[in-house]
Design a protein that fits this description.
Length: 186
Amino acid sequence: MEWTGARYPDKPTVEAAVWIDAPPQAVWDLVSDIGLMPRISNELQSVEWLDGCSGPRVGARFLGRSRHEALGEWSTTSYVVTYEPPRVFSWAVQDRQNPSAVWRFTLEPQEGGTLLRQWAQLGPGPSGLSLAIEQMPDKEQKIVFVRLREFETAIRATLTTVKEIAESASGATSAATAADAGKASE
């Protein structure tokens, strides 16, 4: 990630992508499962659907509990703002109109597999980062840059893990299909 000098109100973003040797639906099943995310995140500790929801849909809410060495522990409510299976899944943190962050997965069929992108935006709504910026306003750009680098690292780790899981499951399915085909020909 390169230094941009972005400030929090600029709604700075970060994005990374990975090609996965698995069909979009298999990848979609992973990225739209919010229960998977705490298992592959160092920061997000747990999630749960609210209001009796059992899965994503536009307007659905979920509670996330997070922990960060410098920021402590906190909970946020997120709102699903885009749900277009198997292409786009995004959510706004804390407030749909003025989110503290927005996260998005985008899937695109490509070369017999899936191009998976994960994107995140900081702000513009208040967050724990806002408090740090208020306490050290002269360091706002550095604070934002450091947090974006953390987001980028987390995104890359998430994409790598989703790729490993999807390709492992896809390989297992392909191997089972091949084995079944072999048995049928015997």
